[in-house]
Automatic annotation (TrEMBL), chains A, B:
This is Malonic semialdehyde reductase. InterPro entries: Nitroreductase, Nitroreductase-like, Nitroreductase_HadB/RutE, RutE-like. The keyword NADP applies. The keyword Glycoprotein does not apply. Keywords: Flavoprotein, FMN, NADP, Oxidoreductase. GO terms for molecular function: 3-hydroxypropionate dehydrogenase (NADP+) activity.
Amino acid sequence: MTLALDRTAQELLFLEAHTAHTFSDEPVSDEQIRAVYELVKYAPTAFNQSPLRITLVRSAEARSRLVKHMSEGNRPKTSAAPLTAILSVDLEFHERLPELQPLAPALKDKFFSEAEARETSGTFNATLQAGYFIVGVRAAGLAAGPMSGFDKHGVDKEFFGDGTQKSLLVVNIGRPGEDAYRPRQPRLSYDDAVTTV
Amino acid sequence: MTLALDRTAQELLFLEAHTAHTFSDEPVSDEQIRAVYELVKYAPTAFNQSPLRITLVRSAEARSRLVKHMSEGNRPKTSAAPLTAILSVDLEFHERLPELQPLAPALKDKFFSEAEARETSGTFNATLQAGYFIVGVRAAGLAAGPMSGFDKHGVDKEFFGDGTQKSLLVVNIGRPGEDAYRPRQPRLSYDDAVTTV
C-alpha cells in the first residue's frame, strides 16, 4: 500500500523469491544475462565506478575448474546448475573511470591512486552491485543460488591469474528444480533491525 | 522482453531511477521505511545472518551530529533531506543466529566464534543488504542518495559508542527536489563487464 512497486513485482523480486538449491535442465541464455546486466548496470556505485565483473562459467572444463574450489556442500548444485556466475571486483576499476566520469576524469587520481583505497572502495561497491545482480536475476524470472562457501584464493588464481580481480560471490542461476527451496527462515523484526534517533 | 519484471517496475527500480542530490519537503514516514524493510528483509544473506542495521536520523539534534561527520560536499544535502539513514553492520550478528537459523543453531559457533570471521562475513552480507535497501527505497517510490563520503570512525563513535556496529553507507531518502538529478553517466558495456569461460 505504501509501496509504488506493484504486488506482482514485489513477489517476483522479494516476497516469493527464494534461494534455489536445485535447478531444472532449462538452459540460461546469454541474452537473459545480457538483459539482467542492461537492467542492473544503472544502479548506483560511488563515483559511478562500476567495479563488478561477471564471469559466466559455461564450458564443462571451466565448470570443473570452479567446482573443485567450492566447499563440499556447494559442489553438487554447482555441478548441476544450468549456469554459474563468478562475481568479482576489478581492483583496476579506476582505469575505466575517465570513461565512466567523463566530466570529472581527475577523480581517478584524486581518490584511487592507492591500491588500498581501490580495494576498500571497489570491494564495497562491487558488493552493492552483487546485491543488485541477485535482484536482476530474479527480475529475469530466474532463481539465484548465491554462495560464499568457496576457496577465494583458489578461484582467484584459477580464473584471474594476474591478480587484478578478486572473487566475491559465486551464483548458480536457472529455473528452480525439484525441492529447490528450503522453508523460509525467520527474519529480524523491523524493531530489531531499525532504530530511530 | 527476456525479463519477467514488467517495464513499469524496471523503470521504477533501475532504468529511470537516479541518485537524488536535492529533495522536496515532503516527509518520509516510518510506515514507508517499514514497508521498505518488510520487502527487502527477504533478500538473501549467507546463513540468513541478516547483519544489516538501519539507523533513521530524524531529530534535529541527531542530524547535526551526523552532518558534522559528512564530507563537505555531502553536508548541504544531508542537512536538507527529509530523512537520512545510516546503514551499518552489527558485528555481533551471530548472537541472533539461533533465531534466524532455528534448525541449525550450531552455525553460530561453527562459523562465527572469531571476530575476524564475523567482520568479513558480516560486512559483506550487510553490504549486499545495503544494495537491496537502495532498491527497496525506490520500490517505495522514493529517491535514494547513497553516500560513502563521511568519516566512518567519527560516525561509529558518535552513534555506535560500544563498537559492535560499523557504519557502511549513509543514504538520504525523499522525493526528488528541483534539479535533483545529474545527467546519467555512461556504464560499462556488457562485453566489458561480462566474460564467458
